[in-house]
Design goal:
Layout (H helix, E strand, L loop, with lengths): L2 H6 L3 H26 L8 H10 L5 H21 L3 H19 L15 H16 L6 H5 L1
């Protein structure tokens, strides 16, 4: 038995399946966070999010809050179904970089820190960037339509 093959071999179908799994789990994660900003899930709402951004010194906090929510909602939905995947991933990466730099400023890496660190936003940005690099895979609307 060739153990090196077991450790290193892959196939196009395995990669496509892995990308699909990533999209099906990470896309809804972004959507849920957007719904939290809308007050649909969790205890947050748009006014609270905008107020928090204002406290952080973000200019036009109400507009920025809505832009962040829309990027998570639309970007997450597009990522999930694999439509306009690469542009959606760029928007999501940008949103997570801003969230990490502003919302978790000075808190370190670990999300268990008090206040929470940027671990979660960094990881979401890295995953979205990885999908940007690989593309949506063959099990996607992008592959079907384009």
């Amino acid at each position: 038995m060739d153990f090196s093959y077991m450790l290193t071999a892959t196939s196009d179908s395995a990669i496509d399946f892995a990308i699909l799994l990533i999209r099906l789990f990470i896309g809804p994660c972004f959507i849920v966070h957007a719904l939290g900003k809308l007050g649909v899930v969790g205890t947050g709402n748009m006014d609270g999010f905008a107020s928090w951004l204002e406290d952080l010194g973000v200019p036009f906090a109400g507009v920025q809050a809505r832009m962040a929510m829309l990027s998570e909602l639309v970007g997450g939905a597009l990522l999930t179904v694999g439509l306009l995947t690469r542009p959606a991933c760029l928007v999501l990466v940008g949103t997570m970089v801003v969230a990490g730099k502003l919302g978790h400023r000075g808190a370190g890496y670990l999300i268990t820190n008090d206040p929470p660190g940027a671990e979660y936003t960094i990881n979401l940005a890295a995953i979205a960037f990885a999908v940007f690099v690989t593309g949506p895979g063959s099990i996607s609307l992008d592959a079907l339509l384009f």
